[in-house]
Each structure stands twice: as C-alpha cells, then as structure tokens.
Amino acid sequence: MTLHPSELGANLRLGDGVVVGERVTFGANVIVFDDTVIGDGCFIQDGAVLGKAPSLGPTSTAKRGELAPLVLGAGCVISTGAVVYRGATLGAGCILGDYAGVRERCALGDGVVVGRGTVVENDTVIGDHTKIQTSAYITAYMTIEDHCFIAPCVHTTNDNFMGRTEKRHALIRGATIRRGARVGGGAVLCPGIEIGEEAFIAAGAVVTKDAPARKVLMGVPARVVRDVPEEELLENQ
Question: Which of 18, 111, 142, 220 is the most exposed place for a label (fewest CB within 10 A)?
Fold first, then answer.
C-alpha cells in the first residue's frame, strides 16, 4: 500500500485506485486508502480517514476475509476526524459527525446522520433517513430500519456472555430496530431484542425483551406504559 500526495487538498494522501467524483472538497490532512470510491459533491473535512482496513484481535468475533472497497454516495459529509473503514457503503447525503466511526461491512442508507463521536460497529445495516445522535454506541450485527431516531448516549449490546465461553460466537447479535422507532437518551438495548415499528423507548430505559410496535416503554427493566400518540406516527407527519 502506497499513499500518494494529491493537489486536491492540503496534505491529502490518496492510495492506489481511489476514485474521486466531481466537485469533491477535501479539508487538510485527509487520508484515503486504496480503491475507495468517493461520489460527486462529497465534503471530506480535516483529518478524516477513509477506507481504513480493520485490525482484529485473536478473539474478535468480527468476520475475517477480504473486504470490498469503501463507497461513499453523492453528497456525503465526512466531518473532522471521522474514520470510515474499508468494506462500508454510505448512501447519498449521509452525514458523519466529528470523530464518528463506521466499521467494515456496514451499510448506511440515504440521508443517514451519525452524530459526533458515535461508533457504528461492523456488519450493521442502517436504513434511509435514520438519525443517530452524539456519543451513541451501535454494536455489531444490528439492523436499524428507515426513519428511526437514536438519541444521545444510547448503548446497544450483542453479547450476553460478555466475552466468556465459546458458545457466545453462535449467539452474538445486536438489536433489531424497526421502521420509525425512537430510542431516548441513555437507554440500553440488550442483545437480540426487537424494537417494534414506531415504538418509543423512554430515556434511561433498559430494554431486556422485545418492545411491541407503537407502544411507549420506560423503566428498568423497560415495560409498556401506553400507546404512542396517533399524532406522532410517521403516517401523520
């Protein structure tokens, strides 16, 4: 791997085979690794790193093997210090906040927002127009559907054994968050649960079981307290 200086940005370094679309703007000190594809009209801010290969420890549960190039759709904004790994794909108009991270084999739909300092771990799929706010942790092997809202400091988990026993390798799975669901600040989602369509998880809740669609849940452990108001449903916006 060789990084080459480029006149497209101050101290910009591009790997071999990088494809840069039209009207792409680079800040200072950006690094773009081999084969990365950057769509038209993207804005890559200072110190961002694109197409980085993962470094996996011997006990990592992440999948191994060759990764496809990173692909950024048209009009993406990758903010200062953000790191996006090889093997990820970002749809058109995605925004990654300062120091956010998106790991390998993640797929983000169009218009997804990932807030400052938020990490999206490997093999996670995020649907169109979902918003994930500051300092959330999105664990590996999750599915988040379209038009979801994840508030600041939400924590998701995917390992009931917390690193102990080989049995965990067959069971590791993050939460599934269905279309239009909302998760309040500081909530914790336990492994393998499903948050139903348009469900509302209150701030600080600890969700240990599946959350029914269109219900409000709160508490530790989270429990159903009422229906989501009709005027808050996506169909009424």
Answer: 220
Triad 204, 208, 211: Cα angle to 5°: 85
Among candidates 110, 154, 161, which has minimal Cα distance to 135? 154
In terms of DSSP H, where are the helices of 90-221?
none
The C-alpha atoms of residue 146 and residue 149 are separated, in whole angstroms, by: 9
> Containing domain of residue 162, as a range?
130-237
- Closest Cα partner for 206 from 185, 188, 223, 184? 188
Quick one: tokens of 158?
């995917």
Do you find a cis peptide bond into 221, omega within 30 degrees of 0? yes
- For the chain, state the CA radius of gyration: 19
Give the global pTM.
0.94
Residue 161: CATH number of its domain: 2.160.10.10
Type and span of the H or E element at 95 = strand 95-96
Sequence-separated (6 or more) residues with CB below 8 Å from residue 14: 3, 4, 6, 8, 20, 32
Q: Classify residue 65 by its DSSP letter.
A: S
Q: Indicate whether 76 belongs to any domain.
A: no
Whole-angstrom CA distances from 225 to 88, 183, 198, 216, 220 are 38, 15, 15, 6, 13
How many domains are there within the chain? 1
